[in-house]
Amino acid sequence: MYTFSEPHSIPTEVIIRIYGELPLPDALQLAATCCRLRQVLIDNTPTIYKNLRRNVPCERYARVLLADQGGSPPHSSSVTIGDLLRLRRNSRIVEKAIEVFDRDITPNIRIPLTSIDDKFYGGKPRPLHLTPTERHRFSRSYYQVWDLLLLDQPSRHQRYRTMLLKHLYMMYEMVDLDQPIGDDSEYFPADEKRCALAEEVSDYLRFLYPDIHGVDYIDFSGQSVSMRTQGHAAIWDHCQPDLKKIVCYQWRDPEKKQVKEEEVWENTTDEE
């Protein structure tokens, strides 16, 4: 039987390359199979992570949360095994939240016009699960809310100032997610800190929107009973054009000062 510890086993450089092509859970599972593979990962974690990171869903936001949990700084290359284990644990929590969302909410959406299915879902009925872009929006917003729940108020306000208006709208919906948020299901929907965070984000949106656009804050909500989305709207693919009109305030008088779109709405796909 072949083992990685044999004298003529696979070179370390090849093992490093293999690790870099795997999803994070698979990489950690591979490392658990024998002492040599585990040692290669321990000795070369930063090098392996440079390639491995592209297989970590929502990696940029996962790393910010990790840092606020006591892990390596978001842009540091000095990633440890402990960081990888925490990233995997956090990712599993987000995946579980998506499973519950896809069970309780996504299948119940009602799309009133077939033209919406034609435009956004290839002419087929809307999927009964989140699309890849919707999964990314969900994961990003979940990570952001979870992270804010760990911070004190001054740190939260500092974080708000770094966020796009588009992301604040999506995050505001996520605060009201009808599930616990975070490690060990610590923050339930009616949790005092979550309620305070919802009010705080609402107040900040009502300050920021007129500060940017010079008009009163415009709400964007999925509270319509006919849609059956339990308050979620900003997450859906077919809602993006309407959300963009509000976030970018596309009714602006052309004679007034224009707001650059990239300042409020990131012109990239939601999978990036």
UniProtKB/TrEMBL annotation:
SUPFAM superfamilies: F-box domain
InterPro entries, per database record: F-box-like_dom_sf, F-box_dom
Start and end residues of each F-box domain: 4-52
PROSITE patterns, A to Z: FBOX (PS50181)
Highest taxon listed in the record's lineage: Eukaryota
Protein name per UniProt: F-box domain-containing protein
